[in-house]
Write a structure and sequence with these properties.
Elements lengths: L17 H6 L7 H20 L2 H8 L9
Length: about 70
Amino acid sequence: EKVPRLRIGIGRPPAGSVADYVLAPHRPEERAALEAAVERAREALRLAIERDFLAAMNRFNVDVPEAGR
């Protein structure tokens, strides 16, 4: 808890093991959602560096639509 970290949500598996879901290759139709998640993470990290992690958490720790994965 003493080390700040950036976490990117993966949604929920439709069925089966969470580990298998996380480790499975992304499907082509997931590409846009993945790119959006990476861009959002980049913005959060930039704000955390420029200001602080609290500012980034306050801005980015909100509900976002599921990535469709």
